[in-house]
Amino acid sequence: MIDHSADMANPAADEPPYMHGLNAPQREAVLTTDGPVLVLAGAGTGKTRALTTRLAHLLATRKAAPHQILAVTFTNKAAREMRERVGGLLGVPVEGWWLGTFHALAARMLRRHAERVGLKSDFNIIDTDDQIRLLKQIMEAEGIDNKAWPPRVLMSVIQRWKDRGLTPDKISRADAGDLAGGRLNLLYKLYQDRLKTLNACDFGDLMLHMLTIFQDPAHADVLASYHHQFKYILVDEYQDTNVSQYLWLRLLAQASKNICCVGDDDQSIYGWRGAEVGNILRFEKDFPGARVIRLEQNYRSTPHILAAASGVIAGNRDRLGKELWTAAEEGEKVRLIGHWDGEE
After folding, report:
1. Distance in angstroms (rounded) separating the CA atoms of residues 271 and 62
2. From the centroid of its chain, how far is CA 76?
3. How far apart are CA 270 and CA 280, in angstroms?
4. What is the pTM of this model?
């Protein structure tokens, strides 16, 4: 039997109230403030508690003002919850910080620097239906049959290129293959040109345009300004980031290196929409000297459930590895029950 006594919290008598109740690895995740940190957090291990407490600690100890922290989530709900939890831990609402989804934060930046990519600061963000409609118009003008090549299918390929940080000039005809009669790379360029004419962008452009600005030596002052502003970067659900988001984060963190990414390589399930589990697997290579902290105490499941889940995921070779455990009682054994579906 593995001894997990070292994982139990041993609080100091004079520690702030927001630290109460944290176990040892959670404390380490909160208190290791400087340098790159990867927190591998299995399901039900209190990763949200650790992340919000880390934010509260940075603010309470005055290591950073709210506007000097960039905190990235994947959903608006997660951002709201983080804002409320940190305010609750500190006892006062926190104002002026950069907390939100990748899209929201990239849009906030792009409004500041829109003219660098040929837009105005009041640009419109078009939805999926408008994207399809616009591409269809371009296809008709170019004489490309939209029944043989459905615009929705072609747009999904264009969006995948954007998720990989690829602008039209980086896509060759060979990359496009035979899609749209071998002309999808041209359609991508015409689509982007039309968006600029309309002073508009789609959701993929929010990150793509900021990458273009950050990577252009002619706009080095923009990235330098964010290097100066952000002392700390925190990222939730890092295993779900795509290439574009990964590059954006790396560029922002390359000066201070104070980036803390929380994620679980065993829960990377969004490859179909561009997520790259390799982003979390190579964190230590991207940020030499990174501290890797494993949250392994599970507060949600019984030992039988954890053992069954561990047995399943153990066959996955693309993982950094962790062993979930719980102090909970054994509970019922896992049962496998087969059922016919509705049609049978």
Report:
1. 38
2. 12
3. 13
4. 0.89
